[in-house]
Amino acid sequence: MSSRKRSARRLPWAWMLVALIGFLFLVLPLVGLVLQVPWSSLGTDLSTPEATSALRLSLVCSLWATALAVLFGVPIAWVLARVEFPGRSIARALVLLPMVLPPVVGGVGLFYALGRDGLVGRYLHDWFDIQLTFSTTGAVVAETFVALPFLVITVEAALRSMDRRYEDAAATLGAKPFTVARRVTLPLILPGLIAGAALAWARALGEFGATITFAGNVQGRTQTTPLAVYLLLESRPELAIGLSVVLLAVCIAVLALLRDRWFAVG
Amino acid sequence: MSLDAHVMLTLGSLDLDVELTVAGAETVAILGPNGAGKTTLLRALAGLLPLDAGHVNLDGVILDDADAVNVVPERRSVGVVFQDYLLFPHLSALDNVAFGLRSRGVGRREARRLAATALEHVGIAAANSVKPNQLSGGQRQAVAFARALVTKPRLLLLDEPLAALDQRARGAVRRDLRTQLQDHTGARVLVTHDPLDAAALADRLVIVEHGRVMQSGTFAEVSARPSSEYVAELVGVNLLRGTACNGRLDLESGGQLIATTPATGTALAIVHPRSVALHRELPGGSPRNVAMGHVVGIEALGDRVRVRVDGPVPLVAEITPAALLDLRLELGSQVWTAVKASEITVFPA
Question: B101 to chain A, minimum CA–CA distance in Å?
Answer without folding.
Answer: 8
